[in-house]
């Protein structure tokens, strides 16, 4: 058996807890393809805590670092999983790639399209794997409903998708992790590219490339973010509501609505309308089918999540099951980690490479660019960089 790939976690905040659970799931199934050899965070206590938690799983303690440069100079890792805040994604990823490490970057891959492209270019120059940490598409229910829609065509040809989520749940600015998420220069935008990154990926995973995007955004916050990282006291300026219409080359129209500042009972709906039926995605509107769903056929029949997943699983060969759900793992964070490491070891592209992350990022940015322009924009123009008025001040601020 070959030696495990040595991996450093750069950023040890909340999302690494989910990564840890995925790693523990794989480890419990006997997988030894990866060893966490370093945990790095500006907050030494956070890095030390994560290091101890990984040690509890794998038996050996990772080294603790509070400085990326020191970590890279120590030469203790072959790959890095990068879970820092959005404005640091490109600088940390590019530094790691230049040091010879493979990288998997939490979604969104970069704070802007241009930043994302710079990460991808650095990976190509270094000859290293660049992966995007995007877990939703890997869940059994998500894979199954995507198969039912795009491959099995259980509801015929999809005509339209309507997704809406409204609530009264302002960001809690007393929490450091929420303060930076309220500021455009730090996060790149609000929920359109945060939780919305999952939605943007799944829409393209099911329906292909978008053609045009029209979006209106609103900011109903009005608060000041105190002590925002690197900026001090600044307005909470990310969008808190949007209404978007996305038209795909395949002919499908997607309506996407959201607000976190509307009073009343929270409500969400996600429905996929086809020529032979409708599918309702349950529980988490912006994570399509993470909470399962129900198929309503035109003839009155219904299929629930368990039935769709069972039929999908029965359609897979043994090799396909092992590739999509290694060792029987159904933890999406574990699967994405396994795929990243196996891509390195087998010298193959990961399922969710940098380009796939860029495509998801571009759809989110197309919403912002349309809102900035006050008119529809072409997805291709946002991807190429021809349309970037919303992103331009972010790129300028960070020297991208």
Main sheet, how many strands, which sense, barrel?
9 strands, mixed
Helical run tally: 15
Regions with pLDDT < 50 over 5+ consecutive residues?
Answer: none
Query: How far is it from the N-terminal to the C-terminal residue, by CA?
Result: 42 Å
CATH superfamily of the largest domain: Dihydrodipicolinate Reductase, domain 2
* CATH topology term of the largest domain: Dihydrodipicolinate Reductase, domain 2
Rg, please?
Answer: 21 Å
Determine the mean pLDDT.
Answer: 97
Query: What is the 3D form?
Result: globular
CATH architecture of the largest domain: 2-Layer Sandwich
CATH class category label of the largest domain: Alpha Beta
Helix content: 25-40%
The portion of residues forming beta strands comes to 15-25%
The tally of strands reads: 17
Query: What spatial order of strands do you see in the largest sheet?
Result: 16-15-14-13-7-12-11-8-17
Q: From the helix content, strand content and strand pairing, which structural class follows?
A: alpha/beta
Number of domains: 2
What is the structure about, briefly put?
The protein has 400 residues and is α/β, with parallel strands linked by helices. It has 15 helices and 17 strands.
Topology:
Elements lengths: L4 E6 L4 H14 L5 E7 L3 H15 L4 E3 L2 H7 L4 E4 L6 H10 L3 E5 L6 H14 L3 E4 L6 H12 L6 E9 L9 H4 L4 H4 L8 H12 L2 E9 L5 E5 L3 E4 L5 E8 L4 E7 L7 E8 L2 E5 L11 E5 L4 E2 L1 H11 L2 H7 L7 H15 L7 H20 L3 E2 H6 L7 H7 L2
Q: What would you note in describing this structure?
A:
This protein has 400 residues and is of the alpha/beta class. It has 2 domains: 5-133 and 327-352, Rossmann fold; 137-317, Dihydrodipicolinate Reductase, domain 2. 40% of the residues lie in helices and 23% in strands. The chain has helices at residues 15-28, 44-58, 68-74, 89-98, 113-126, 140-151, 176-179, 184-187, 196-207, 305-315, 318-324, 332-346, 354-373, 379-384, 392-398; strands at residues 5-10, 34-40, 63-65, 79-82, 102-106, 130-133, 158-166, 210-218, 224-228, 232-235, 241-248, 253-259, 267-274, 277-281, 293-297, 302-303, 377-378. The strands form 3 sheets. The protein has a 9-stranded mixed sheet. Strands 3-2-1-4-5-6 form a 6-stranded parallel sheet. The longest helix is centred in the C-terminal third of the chain and has 20 residues, at 354-373. The model has no long low-confidence stretch (mean pLDDT 97).
């Amino acid at each position: 058996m070959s030696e495990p790939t040595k991996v450093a976690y750069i950023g040890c905040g909340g999302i690494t807890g989910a990564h840890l659970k995925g790693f523990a799931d794989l480890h419990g199934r006997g997988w030894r393809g990866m060893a966490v050899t370093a945990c790095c965070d500006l907050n030494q206590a956070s890095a030390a805590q994560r290091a101890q938690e990984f040690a509890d799983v794998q038996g050996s303690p990772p080294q603790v670092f509070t400085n990326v440069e020191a970590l890279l100079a120590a030469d203790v890792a072959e790959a890095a999983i990068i879970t820092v805040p959005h404005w640091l994604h490109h600088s940390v990823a590019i530094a790691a790639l230049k040091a010879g490490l493979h990288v998997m970057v939490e979604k969104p891959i970069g704070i802007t399209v241009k930043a994302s492209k710079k990460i991808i270019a650095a990976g190509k120059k270094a000859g290293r794997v660049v992966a995007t940490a995007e877990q939703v598409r890997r869940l059994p229910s998500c894979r199954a409903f995507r198969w039912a829609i795009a491959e099995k065509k259980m509801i015929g040809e999809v005509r339209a998708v309507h997704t809406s989520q409204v609530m009264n749940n302002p960001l809690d600015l007393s929490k450091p992790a929420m303060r930076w998420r309220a500021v455009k220069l730090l996060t790149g935008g609000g929920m359109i590219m945060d939780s919305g990154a999952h939605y943007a990926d799944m829409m393209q995973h099911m329906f292909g490339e978008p053609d045009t995007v029209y979006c209106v955004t609103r900011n109903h916050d009005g608060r000041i973010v105190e002590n925002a990282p690197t900026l001090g006291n600044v307005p909470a300026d990310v969008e808190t509501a949007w209404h978007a219409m996305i038209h795909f080359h395949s002919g499908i129209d997607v309506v996407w609505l959201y607000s976190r500042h509307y009073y009343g009972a929270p409500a969400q709906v996600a429905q996929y309308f086809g020529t032979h039926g409708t599918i309702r995605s349950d529980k988490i509107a912006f994570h399509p089918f993470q909470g399962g769903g129900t198929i309503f056929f035109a003839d009155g029949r219904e299929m629930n999540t368990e039935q769709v997943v069972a039929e999908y699983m029965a359609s897979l060969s043994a090799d396909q099951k092992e590739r999509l759900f290694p060792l029987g793992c159904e933890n999406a964070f574990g699967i994405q980690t396994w795929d990243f490491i196996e891509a390195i070891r087998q010298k193959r592209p990961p399922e969710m490479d940098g380009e796939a992350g860029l495509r998801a990022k571009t759809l989110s940015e197309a919403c912002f660019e349309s809102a900035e322009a006050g008119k529809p924009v072409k997805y291709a123009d946002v991807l190429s960089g021809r349309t970037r008025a919303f992103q331009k001040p972010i790129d300028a601020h960070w020297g991208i």
